[in-house]
Write a structure and sequence with these properties.
Blueprint lengths: L3 E5 L3 E5 L1 E2 L16 E9 L2 E9 L2 H22 L7 H5 L7 E3 L2 H16 L9 H13 L5 H9 L6 E4 L4 E4 L12 H15 L5 E5 L2 E4 L9 E5 L10 E5 L3 E6 L4 E4 L2 E4 L2 E2 L4 E2 L4 E7 L2 H14 L4 H8 L4 E7 L5 E7 L5 E2 L2
The structure holds adenosine monophosphate and magnesium ion.
Length: about 350
């Protein structure tokens, strides 16, 4: 059985998630009850969400998948910056300096995002909304923003200008014009939440994939884990990196299909907070962490940090996340490096 997740980078990373028996790994556990594999797909959050689960009956599988997709749709109504009525868009209409009550989900994701912003020294920052918006416009018009425009967007950004009050579940955006952007973490969060819905309905042998973000639940029955294969496109001679894992999140970020050529320079859709411009060094990062929320945010953070700050990148991962970083050296060759440590549930041959 095979699931293919194609993600076009300056190299193409191919992720295959499937149940597999690996030599050199511990023996597979015995198969349990007669569970059948089902697969579902639905468009959400501007991408295709895919669910693979093992269930005793088709109706149990369908009911659970529908509930999981409904949860993703619910989260989109909170986080989306394409929906003018989403909670995030409504926040933009609030004046600066006022504490605003937010939903439990938004507060939860903001807390996690702020932790990641601190760990990454601001490389990952959901308050970069004004910079992301400016950069989106630049990619559309193929015109670089002026220095004054970038400086204005930077003034209206910065995780230190966001206050969270857990007791009241309120947030305060301190600078005028601040905007939140969850593009670097929302899909991982939604995949985790969808997986949690399936587990609550008794279907824990499941996985949810949202483009480059995977939330893996319990391994398929009788298997050690889901197999994920990471293959540098254009370099078929290189051995793909094979991961066998359960109960982890795996995310890939970097110079994806969302890039722009402006004045002969290739810019990524991921912005460097220091310049308020898209990244220009080709990089692709895959992160394996305990949950997809974390792997998603970390993969975006590591893409920014991979520009040069190796110690910062390693420090950002901590001791329970692993990153595979692919980048081009000065001779144009692709170099692969790994950072961090394996989270529990990750088996590498
Ligand atoms: P991903 O593909 O998960 O790396 O997320 C990329 C998206 O995250 C972009 O399209 C923006 O919406 C947002 N983003 C870009 N740069 C950053 C950054 N430095 N920190 C947080 N979010 C970012
Ligand atoms: Mg991300």
């Amino acid at each position: 059985m095979h699931l293919w997740f194609l993600r076009r980078c300056c190299w193409l990373l191919t992720l295959i998630a499937t149940a597999v028996a690996q030599t050199r790994l511990p023996p597979e556990p015995p198969a349990t009850a007669a569970l059948v594999r089902y697969e579902f797909m639905a468009p959400h959050m501007g991408t295709l969400f895919r669910i693979v689960l093992f269930a005793p009956t088709a109706s149990a599988a369908e009911t659970a998948a529908a509930a999981a997709f409904a949860r993703v749709a619910e989260l989109n109504r909170i986080m989306s910056d394409y929906d003018a009525n989403s909670e995030v868009m409504q926040l933009r209409r609030q004046p600066a300096g006022i504490a605003v009550a937010v939903s439990a989900e938004l507060f939860d994701l903001l807390q996690r995002s702020q932790q990641l912003a601190e760990k990454s020294g601001g490389a990952f920052d959901v308050t970069l909304g004004p910079v992301v918006r400016l950069w989106r416009e630049a990619r559309r018009t193929r015109q670089l923003p002026t220095a004054a425009e970038r400086a204005a967007a930077q003034r209206a950004s910065g995780y230190t200008k966001l206050r969270l009050n857990p007791a009241a579940r309120t947030i305060t955006l301190l600078a005028p014009g601040m905007q939140l952007d969850f593009g670097g973490i929302a899909k991982g969060y939604a995949a985790d939440e969808a997986l949690a819905v399936l587990a609550r309905l008794g279907l824990a042998h499941a996985m949810v994939a949202a483009s480059g973000d995977l939330a893996l639940g319990d391994a398929p029955p009788g298997k050690l884990g889901w197999k994920v294969e990471i293959e540098p496109f254009g370099h078929p001679s290189r051995e793909p990196w094979i991961i066998v894992a359960a109960n982890v999140g795996i995310s890939t970020s970097g110079d994806t299909e969302q890039f722009a050529d402006i004045g002969g320079v290739r810019y990524s859709h991921i912005v460097d907070p220091a310049t308020a411009l898209g990244l220009t060094k080709p990089v692709a990062v895959t992160v394996i962490a305990q949950q997809a929320t974390l792997s998603d945010g970390l993969a975006t953070a590591c893409s920014v940090l991979a520009i040069g700050a190796r110690e910062k990148l390693a420090g950002c991962l901590g001791d329970s996340a692993r990153a595979i970083v692919l980048r081009q050296d000065q001779c144009g060759m692709i170099q692969r490096e790994t950072f961090g440590s394996n989270p529990p549930g990750l088996h590498t041959p």
